[in-house]
Amino acid sequence: MASGTEDSATKDRPTAARPSGLTALLGTDLRQYSMVIALVVLLIVFQITTRGLMITPSNFQNLITGNAYVLILAMGMLMVIVIGQIDLSVGSVAGFVGMVMAVIARDWGIPWWLAVFLGVVLGALIGSWQGFWLSKLGIPGFITTLAGMMIFRGATLWLSHSVTVSGPPQLRTLSSGYLPEWGPAFTGMNNSTLLLGIVALVAVVFFTLRTWWHQRGSASATPAWAVVVRLVIICAVIMYVTWIFGSGRPGTSFPIVGLILLVLILIYHTITERTPFGRNIYAVGGNKAAAALSGVNVTRTYFLTMVNISFLAAIAGILFVGRASSAGSNTGTGWELDAIAAVFIGGAAVSGGIGTILGSIIGAMVMAVLNSGLYLMGVGSDKTQVIKGLVLLAAVAFDVWNKQHGRASIIGRVTKAIAPENPSAPAPGVPPATTHQ
Predict the structure, then answer these.
(1) Packing angle, helices 57-82 and 357-376, rounded to 10
(2) Helix, strand, coil shares of the chain as percentages rounded to 5?
(3) Crossing angle for the helix pair 57-82 and 256-274, nearest 10 degrees?
(4) Do the Cβ atoms of 246 and 237 come closer than 8 Å?
(5) Whose CA is closest to 151, among 65, 191, 213, 92?
């Protein structure tokens, strides 16, 4: 009898409809791709207005090398903003670490790699200092890092005596160098870049098909044709980008700093999406009290997040010194504003708990394209700042409007669609389930 009742209930239970048409290809809400589309539109508009100067190998290479610090800082800033805090000191910390690294390399007579290592350690120690005030004493991150911004900017001036200090010359290869050339010349492009593109193609195809294979039996599984179309589009983009970077003037290719960025993006995407620490960050940002009740160590999460952002600031500062060949007293000025803008353009919530690494990278690329395009058009720095401010305001206002109407964060949905999460893992911004006793 019970079995018959279960069968009847099963028949009456509504089943999820298999997606079809554009819904299968792009998802249920086309607006989720707004920022990606905006990035593409910006590239096209600047390509037309600059008469073909925007989408060129040299300009794309400059986009990566010239904005690496924003991309690196955006990853750390995203995690800080997700926990409901903010860090105003990253630019000053980057400048201070870069100056210390340059001074000790010049005066101590130690190898350049050891000076870089000590600089990274110094960044982590600074993060520990600021994390202590936030996590142990409860001083808000805004106040803690505002003090840090003044302290480390002043320390940079004090240490350098307002004089530029030359950095280790070996760092220039790391910051401004390119992947080496090797192998046959018949490919017509840099073979290291070509190999990197092939690896990216294989990885995208493998992980996409593996995800589809595991989900193919579910009622809401994406149809095979939609998966194929997505792969064709993504692979076409990868091949075009590979050609752009690999077909530049002799001696150039995909920047080495770009490879460092790719590694950091993969690491931090995995941390935020696949690890307990990443889930704790979203839990604390979503509801600190509920997170504490569910067993999350809020103090530890605050502390490690602040250590991490200063660690990344140190890397950004060191790479910038390598590219500029020197550390100046003004290095890092205003970097925190670019990083914060990139994170919010990328879909992070001001109140915390929402945001993704990939979304922040998209936001940082929007800022980078704006900087580059406006510069190529001959727009002055004053007007550039006005335009960037308006873009930031418009992006955040549009995303807030969507959330007020019951829609999810746009960029969060984009990056979830591009890199599907483990179905068993909690979604970003949702605290772990609390057990009521």
Answers:
(1) 140
(2) 70, 0, 30
(3) 30
(4) no
(5) 92
For 273-311, give the DSSP string.
HHSHHHHHHHHHHH-HHHHHHTT--HHHHHHHHHHHHHH
Comparing CA positions, the residue from 55, 57, 53 lying closest to residue 252 is 57
Inter-residue contact 137 to 306 (CB < 8 Å)? no
Distance, CA of 404 to CA of 25 (rounded, Å): 26
- What phi and psi, each to the nearest 5 degrees, are found at residue 421? -85, 170
pTM, rounded to two decimals: 0.83
Three-class DSSP category at 178: strand
Is residue 327 within a helix (H) or strand (E), and if so which, with residue range?
A: strand 326-327
Tens of pLDDT along the chain (437 residues) come to: 444 444 444 444 444 455 555 555 555 444 456 778 888 888 999 999 998 889 999 999 999 998 999 999 999 999 999 999 999 999 999 999 999 999 999 888 889 999 999 999 999 999 999 999 999 998 999 999 999 999 999 999 998 888 888 888 888 888 888 999 888 888 888 999 999 999 999 999 998 888 888 877 776 677 788 788 888 988 999 999 999 999 888 888 999 999 999 999 999 999 998 999 999 999 999 888 999 999 999 999 999 999 999 999 999 999 999 998 888 888 888 899 889 988 988 888 877 888 889 889 988 998 899 888 998 888 888 888 898 888 878 877 776 676 665 554 444 444 444 444 444 444 444 444 433 33
And the tokens for 126?
């600074």
- What does DSSP assign to residue 40? H
Backbone angles phi, psi at 131, to 5 degrees: -65, -30
Query: What phi-psi label fits residue 314: left (phi over 0), alpha (psi between -120 and 50 degrees) or beta?
Result: alpha
Residue located via tokens 């760092």: 171
Q: Which helix (H) or strand (E) covers residue 226, if one does?
A: helix 224-246
| Two tokens, residue 164 | 């530029």
DSSP 366-417: HHHHHHHHHHHTT--HHHHHHHHHHHHHHHHHHHHHHHHTT---HHHHHHHH
For CA atoms 143, 144, 150, 151, the dihedral sign is positive
What is the helix (H) or strand (E) element at residue 165, kind and residue range? strand 165-166
**Counting beta carbons within 10 angstroms of the beta carbon of residue 401, is it exposed (0 to 12), middle (13 to 18) or buried (19 or more)?**
exposed
d(CA 331, CA 102): 12
